[in-house]
């Protein structure tokens, strides 16, 4: 029989006030496997740990239960101390008699009885715990970053600058993400491309960044340190390795279509490059618009190309890559147009969204930065900005705050006033949320220096009258109904996750929240980690955020990756599952129940095999196994049953004495 | 378990004994939060920490009831939030099956509860224990309790 030592912590008065420590120790001392009982005022303190270490050595203990706070608090502390005293750390368990006993009950007798049960159940468990060693796995020191917006680029650059190779995968044909569409940025009003283009250029020329645009991650296998990723590179119908970027094809192309990058406010050719500063600066063909693909004739671009780079036969290419860590930076989209019916978005051309306003205001945009309304090109004199369109709307939109709209609306209104000084800007708002360095001052500047009129209230309806848009709203501060004959209406639409996020989450086997944003491991202490080791989150893929936050988070995610790459081997928890091949019938139920593909039926021996480094130790397979061949190490069925026994056995603990 | 038990009690007077199997990531941490927040609840519950509610073998549930526990509570992460992707759904199915088996044995499947309790829901955990104790008092003691006297 094992010699179990029990160390009971008073936690000052936190435990001792409600639990009768003396009675508890006396009872435990009579239990068969308990060879040593000791209590101390603060077990986690240095003298407390010393006391435990001394007893382990002198009393030849081969298992220990520390009855104290939650294992989430000090399990690591005590396991390290036990290891220092020569005890295998997996032979130490915590009995949680503080959070789940002394803090939630007042009756001393009942709390003491419960504490006794809790400790006894852990004694039963620890007496059956195996000595374990962490598994060691090698690390591929190469990172994958999915999404090349500002956050993804930042993460890629930081990892690459630290000396590791980075694979940067982007779905679009250019990098920079939504930031490439912005005109100026708050609260400094510096030009977005002036900040962005040095970054995109740096990414493009970085010797350790392998850039893959027009590409999507379609499959992820493996595990932390050793992921195997399949990436589909979609055809651009132009061989970029021979293309020189002369753009003669674009010039000659006869087909004009609305530009997605300009959000439909401008046009582009069927073969085009998204915008003048695009990186890589190479054209691609939109097969849905191209006359050759849709009607089977034309072929002008191919005839024009001086180097013969146009290739209508290009097919998707699947690449398989090995990486050790993955950073998800898939960004955001704006709330779908179709769901904002009452504001006439999509119906009236002069009702536009924030990104469209960015394009109108951009020097490289469809109007070369002149504020003109889409319908007739006139300079609007009355502009209404509406905040929280879709955001903070439990009924029709999303319940969360999109965080950046207050700031960019103030920016839009200011930029408009700078360009049209005799115009009037109105902002309908619910609250102005300007928490950030220099943000509140920025709002004040919009109101005081630029004379933007803020109206606290909602807009109920927008309808056309002549060439104007009538905006009906209410100012809840004055209590008056407001009617504005506007020339242009700008909607600050809610931010929603990228439409690709859901599929990607499934491929990565990481969780997303109810809105589709990737879930972080802990909202406060692990904000850039997913719950799967080796997969990190950054930017708006995780939640709405502004550029400084997205960049800061990228740095944080990069540092996590670098920490992972700082050693040649990773330690993997050994509390995985084990199969007894003599009992296993090869039924395969466990294979189906494993969410990590860590199990397979060996084709020769016809029994289940576990790939230990893939196993995350959830124990689902052990529960599915019909004959107990699979056991969750240190959570075996025998252990669980013995713990249940301590809770259901005779009330006085009869039968436990030595 | 040292909850007092006397002969000849009428249903409602007795103190139910509940065995809880809580997932490490959500419900166990939620129960910890109830403690940190000092939210009081009846001391009738004994918790076993499991890594995932999906690792709960239906045998654990049946064993606890057959050995005399008045109730079994399984706690897992909310739908879509499982640390192990889908263990909570597996648990939900297994609990449903265990309840049926208990019904067929005449042991009242309502003794087994499955609840989604997240790490931030300390209050919900405490409320769940209170509600469960109340319902078990209505159902009455587990007839298997008296096995100890055999």
Question: Would you give an account of this structure?
Answer:
Chain A is an alpha/beta fold and 658 residues long. Chain A has 18 helices and 34 strands. A 5-stranded parallel β-sheet of chain A has the order 10-7-6-18-29. Chain A has a 5-stranded parallel β-sheet with strand order 20-27-21-22-23. In chain A, helix 2 packs across helix 3 (71-84), helix 5 (108-127) runs antiparallel to helix 18 and helix 6 runs parallel beside helix 15. The N and C termini of chain A lie close together (11 Å). Chain B has a 4-stranded parallel β-sheet, sandwiched between helices. With 150 residues, chain B is of the alpha/beta class. Helix content of chain B is 37%, strand content 15%.
Helix fraction bin of chain A = 25-40%
The name CATH uses for the topology of chain B is Rossmann fold
Number of domains of chain B: 1
Q: What is the C-alpha radius of gyration of chain A, as a whole number of Å?
A: 32 Å
CATH superfamily of the largest domain in chain A: FAD/NAD(P)-binding domain
Number of strands of chain B: 4
Short note summarizing the structure:
The complex is a heterodimer of chains A (658) and B (150). With 658 residues, chain A is an alpha/beta fold. Chain A folds into 5 domains: 4-132, 3-Layer(aba) Sandwich (Rossmann fold); 142-234 and 316-331 and 498-564, FAD/NAD(P)-binding domain (3-Layer(bba) Sandwich), CATH 3.50.50.60; 248-304, no CATH class; 333-496, FAD/NAD(P)-binding domain (3-Layer(bba) Sandwich), CATH 3.50.50; 573-633, Alpha-Beta Plaits (2-Layer Sandwich).
Question: What are the key terms here?
Answer:
heterodimer; A: 658 residues; alpha/beta; Rossmann fold; FAD/NAD(P)-binding domain; 5 domains; five-stranded parallel β-sheet; 34 strands; 28% helix; globular; B: 150 residues; four-stranded parallel β-sheet; disordered N terminus
Task: Outline the fold blueprint.
The complex is a heterodimer of chains A (658) and B (150).
Chain A: E1 4-9, H1 21-30, E2 34-40, H2 46-58, E3 63-68, H3 71-84, E4 92-96, H4 98-102, H5 108-127, E5 135-138, E6 142-146, H6 150-161, E7 165-169, E8 184-185, E9 190-191, H7 192-205, E10 209-212, E11 215-223, E12 226-233, H8 248-252, E13 256-258, E14 267-269, E15 271-272, E16 284-285, H9 291-295, H10 300-304, E17 317-323, E18 325-328, E19 332-334, E20 351-353, H11 354-361, E21 382-389, H12 405-419, E22 424-429, H13 439-448, E23 453-456, E24 459-465, E25 468-475, E26 480-486, E27 488-493, E28 495-497, H14 501-508, E29 535-537, H15 547-564, E30 569-572, E31 577-579, H16 589-593, E32 599-601, E33 608-610, H17 620-624, E34 630-632, H18 637-648
Parallel strand pairs in A: 1-2, 1-3, 3-4, 6-7, 6-18, 7-10, 18-29, 20-27, 21-22, 21-27, 22-23
Antiparallel strand pairs in A: 5-30, 8-9, 11-12, 12-17, 13-14, 15-16, 19-28, 24-25, 25-26, 31-34, 32-33
Chain B: E1 18-23, H1 27-36, E2 45-50, H2 58-66, E3 71-76, H3 87-104, E4 112-116, H4 122-139
Parallel strand pairs in B: 1-2, 1-3, 3-4
Helix pairs in contact in B: 1-4, 2-3
């Amino acid at each position: 029989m094992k010699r179990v030592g029990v160390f009971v912590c008073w936690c000052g008065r936190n435990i001792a006030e409600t639990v009768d420590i003396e009675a508890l120790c006396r009872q435990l001392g009579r239990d068969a496997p308990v060879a040593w009982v000791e209590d101390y005022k603060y077990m986690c303190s240095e003298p407390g740990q010393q006391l435990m270490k001394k007893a382990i050595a002198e009393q030849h203990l081969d298992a220990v239960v520390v009855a104290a706070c939650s294992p989430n608090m000090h399990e690591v502390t005590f396991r390290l101390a036990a290891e220092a005293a020569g005890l295998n750390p997996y032979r130490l368990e915590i009995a949680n008699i503080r959070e789940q006993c002394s803090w939630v009950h007042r009756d001393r007798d009942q709390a003491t009885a419960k504490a006794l049960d809790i400790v006894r159940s852990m004694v039963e468990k620890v007496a059956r715990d195996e000595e374990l060693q962490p598994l060691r796995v090698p690390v591929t020191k190469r990172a994958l970053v999915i999404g090349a917006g500002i956050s993804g680029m930042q993460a890629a650059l930081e990892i690459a600058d630290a000396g590791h190779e980075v694979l940067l995968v982007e779905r679009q044909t250019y990098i920079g993400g939504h930031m490439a569409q912005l005109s100026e940025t708050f609260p400094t009003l510096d030009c977005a491309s002036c900040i962005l283009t040095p970054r995109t250029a740096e990414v493009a020329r970085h010797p350790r960044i392998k850039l893959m645009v027009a590409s999507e991650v379609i499959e992820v296998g493996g595990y932390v340190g050793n992921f195997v990723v399949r990436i589909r590179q979609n055809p651009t119908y132009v061989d970029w390795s021979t293309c020189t970027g002369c753009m003669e094809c674009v010039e000659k192309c006869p087909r004009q279509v609305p530009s997605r990058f300009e959000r439909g406010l401008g046009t582009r050719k069927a073969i085009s490059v998204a915008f003048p500063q695009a990186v890589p600066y190479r054209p691609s063909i939109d097969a849905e618009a191209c006359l050759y693909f849709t009607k089977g004739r034309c072929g002008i671009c191919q005839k024009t190309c001086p180097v013969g780079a146009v290739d209508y036969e290009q097919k998707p290419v699947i690449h398989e890559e090995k990486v050790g860590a993955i950073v998800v930076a898939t960004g955001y989209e704006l709330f779908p147009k179709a769901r904002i019916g009452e504001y006439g978005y999509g119906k009236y051309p002069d009702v536009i969204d924030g990104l469209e306003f960015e394009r109108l205001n951009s020097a490289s945009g469809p109007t070369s930065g002149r504020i003109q309304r889409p319908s007739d090109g006139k300079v609007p004199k009355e502009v209404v900005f509406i905040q929280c369109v879709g955001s903070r709307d439990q009924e029709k939109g999303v319940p969360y705050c999109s965080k950046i709209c207050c700031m960019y609306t103030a920016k839009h209104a200011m930029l408009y006033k700078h360009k049209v000084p005799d115009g009037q800007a109105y902002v309908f708002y619910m609250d102005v949320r300007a928490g950030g360095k220099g943000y509140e001052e920025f709002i004040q500047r919009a109101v005081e220096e630029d004379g933007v009129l803020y109206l606290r209230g909602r807009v109920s309806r927008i309808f056309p009258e002549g060439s104007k848009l009538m905006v009906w709203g209410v100012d809840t501060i004055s209590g008056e109904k407001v009617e504005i004959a506007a020339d242009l209406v700008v909607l600050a639409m809610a931010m929603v996750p990228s439409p690709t996020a859901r599929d990607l989450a499934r491929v990565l086997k990481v969780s997303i929240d109810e809105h589709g944003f990737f879930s972080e491991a802990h909202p406060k202490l692990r904000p850039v980690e997913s719950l799967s080791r080796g997969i990190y989150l950054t930017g708006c893929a995780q939640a709405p955020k502004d550029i400084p936050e997205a960049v800061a988070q990228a740095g944080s995610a990069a540092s996590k990756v670098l920490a992972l790459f700082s050693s040649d081997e990773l330690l993997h928890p050994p509390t995985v599952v084990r199969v007894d091949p003599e009992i296993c019938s090869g039924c395969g139920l466990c294979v189906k129940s494993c969410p990590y593909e860590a199990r397979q039926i060996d084709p020769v021996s016809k029994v289940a095999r576990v790939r230990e480094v893939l196993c995350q130790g959830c124990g689902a397979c052990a529960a599915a196994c019909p004959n107990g061949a699979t056991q969750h190490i240190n959570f075996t069925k025998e252990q669980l049953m013995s713990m249940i026994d301590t809770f259901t056995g005779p009330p006085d603990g009869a039968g436990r004495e030595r | 378990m040292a909850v007092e038990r006397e002969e000849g009690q009428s249903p409602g007077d007795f103190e139910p004994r509940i065995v809880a199997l809580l997932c490490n990531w959500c419900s166990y941490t939620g129960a910890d939060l109830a403690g940190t927040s000092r939210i009081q609840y009846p001391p009738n519950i004994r918790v076993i920490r499991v890594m995932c509610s999906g690792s709960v073998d239906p045998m654990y549930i049946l064993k606890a009831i057959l050995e005399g526990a008045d109730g079994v509570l399984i706690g897992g992460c909310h739908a879509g939030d499982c640390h192990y992707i889908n263990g909570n759904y597996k648990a939900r199915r297994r609990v449903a099956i265990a309840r049926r088996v208990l019904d067929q044995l005449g042991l009242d499947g309502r003794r087994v509860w499955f609840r989604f309790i997240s790490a931030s829901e300390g209050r919900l955990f405490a409320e769940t224990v209170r509600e469960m104790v109340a319902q078990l008092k209505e159902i009455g003691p587990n007839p298997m309790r008296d096995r100890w006297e055999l």
